[in-house]
User: Which sequence fits this backbone?
């Protein structure tokens, strides 16, 4: 069953704006597929909350890539995620791409060898950050290209390149997410 996209209006009185921003952060996984509409100060707080969330993810996921290179991690599970994703895209089936996207990220976290990092990133995971201006297939294709570039940098032992590519990927996800947000 397809998940319905809704327009959600987020409104809070002055003394509740911080609580609403925290609620958005806590529920970012569920909110990521909906259009958020806010007014003035509430909108600025919600956008800052989303930016803070993605900035932390970018730093941590970038460092997970560095650890993969430094530890000489086994990349076979990561390579398999890419293979399955590529097959899905080639067949025109984007219905399971969300799961493959999460698997790709999880395999990097896991390959980093840092259990605390895996736990922290699992708590920050918020699913596909698909913008309103693209289809699920378009998103899958764009994300797959970025995933492949990240994998290639890790496989080539380019720790800083892998980190930079992952951070760019997460920042692009934030930008896509913010196309679902209107003030």
Assistant:
């Amino acid at each position: 069953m397809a998940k319905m996209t809704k327009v959600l209006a987020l409104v809070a009185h002055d003394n509740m704006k911080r609580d609403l921003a925290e609620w958005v952060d806590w529920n970012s996984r569920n909110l990521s597929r909906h259009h958020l509409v806010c007014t003035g100060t509430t909108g600025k707080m919600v956008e800052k909350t989303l930016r803070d969330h993605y900035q932390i993810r970018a730093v941590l996921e970038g460092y997970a890539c560095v650890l993969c290179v430094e530890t000489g991690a086994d990349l076979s599970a990561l390579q398999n995620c890419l293979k399955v994703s590529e097959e899905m895209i080639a067949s025109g089936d984007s219905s399971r791409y969300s799961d493959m996207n999460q698997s790709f990220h999880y395999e990097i976290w896991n390959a980093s060898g840092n259990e605390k990092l895996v736990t922290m990133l699992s708590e920050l995971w918020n699913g596909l950050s698909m913008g309103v201006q693209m289809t699920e297939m378009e998103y899958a294709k764009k994300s797959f290209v970025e995933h492949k570039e990240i994998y290639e940098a890790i496989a080539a032992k380019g720790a800083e390149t892998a980190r930079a590519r992952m951070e760019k990927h997460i920042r692009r996800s934030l930008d896509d997410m913010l196309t679902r947000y209107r003030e």
Q: What stands out?
A: Helices lie at 17-26, 28-31, 40-71, 76-90, 97-111, 115-124, 136-155, 159-178. The mean pLDDT is 86.
